[in-house]
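Lab manual, section 2.4: Encoding a predicted structure.

Procedure: take the sequence of the chain (112 residues), apply the prediction step described in section 2.3, and record the output as structure tokens. A sample record is shown.
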Amino acid sequence: QVQLVESGGGLVQPGGSLRLSCAASGSISRINVMGWYRQAPGKERELVATITGGGLTNYADSVKGRFTISGDNAKNLMYLQMNSLKSEDAAVYYCTADLVVWGQGTLVTVSS
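Recorded output:
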């Protein structure tokens, strides 16, 4: 069983930056792909970025060049560095392991 806990959300002005963290515990060695998804009010949950155990990454077009996903295997942590934030990036951000296990989410608000 894998457990995921996100942190790092908050209020940021447009153009600002935030770094989200996802702490994983449990049967971590069985995870193939980890990722970040987000869900804005009234919208469906959507892909933000994924990363494989080998470090291969994939990004939604809307965040390419602005967001960076990374992992620290030694600390069982995954990060999402978000730069040049826009109002449309505001959402609850979820960490997932293989799209099977999900964290509780962390809220990102982008507003001046």
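Check your result against the sample. Residues 40 and 59 are 18 Å apart (CA to CA).
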